[in-house]
Fold this sequence. Notes:
single chain; Arc Repressor Mutant, subunit A; 7 helices; mainly alpha
Amino acid sequence: MSATDHALAHEITMLYSDHHGWLRGWLRKRLGDAHQAADLAHDTFIQLLTREQPVAAREPRAFLTTVAQRVLANHYRRQQLERAYLDALAVLPEAVAVSPEDRAIVMETLVEIDRMLGNLAPVVKRAFLMSQLDGMSHGEIASALEISVTSVKRYLVKAGEQCYFGAHGVVL
Length: 172
């Protein structure tokens, strides 16, 4: 472990010991669930441990709040995806029922795709999802989004690149 890594680990340890309880309480007020709050407080500190640069926060609670808000936003986005997926499963005939294991795999895949598409403009993301999930043609997407077919093609290429390079650890 390098001196920088050691200093960062020490800094995160101090943040954790000084503010973990406070952060858990802050999250519990927003979520109304002590267990979820504990999980998200944990996730917040995991985010900090993956940093490569020091935190050096003059206002540690404000800094932790900012990081926790991002973690919370990801949590809510995941919940929305789960609800949409479960709603889609609910309308399937019983003969097409998905096992809990397959359901978990699909859910993780959806969350990963959402993460990869997260930096795209909403219209680009929407065009990609219409193509991939709804099976719509370029013309149908163009009509639904009131854009040109050329724009649809450009958006689909952009989203495809984001998925491919994002899945392979390349930053675009």
